[in-house]
């Protein structure tokens, strides 16, 4: 992803669906001038903001795409967020929101799902996930994400409340 992105030196970048802020932090490290992380899940933003309070990288986090953000960015990055749209109309609306944020000539870079996506639901079990579908896998087909908190060995107890409000158990397309 970062290779495809190329240099972000002195660029203004919006990380759409920033989650815990992983990419937002990487973008800042790579010299982006302004990084705004946007996510609709308050729990994820709380985690990202807490890290920002400690680390002071100069990243802004927001749960609302205010009008003043429109046309302000050289790059909009959307990693693993497009599949959250549960209808085609929802997908169009998300793409339209992303493109409104760009300056003329700006770039929208998204990774809808990992290129090595594995259709077997049991494949992700060791990581505490199951991706299940009641129909054979097809482009645009619905997939249910199941999380098992017992398996999340990387999760520390203090993250519990944030994960619980992060809205992660939902229907994906
Ligand atoms: C799988 S996470 C990926 C997080 C981050 N991009 C990463 O790669 O680490 C997807 C995130 O997108 C957020 N999201 C889903 N739909 C969204 C929307 N319409 N607007 C903003 N955030 C959204 C979710 O709350 C979640 O935090």
TrEMBL record:
* One Pfam family from the record: Methyltransf_25
Which terms does the record give in the GO molecular function aspect? Answer: methyltransferase activity
* All copies of domain Methyltransferase, residue ranges: 13-106
The record's section on PANTHER family has:
METHYLTRANSFERASE
What is the name listed in the Swiss-Prot or TrEMBL entry for this protein?
Methyltransferase domain-containing protein
Q: Which organism is it from?
A: Cystobacter fuscus (strain ATCC 25194 / DSM 2262 / NBRC 100088 / M29)
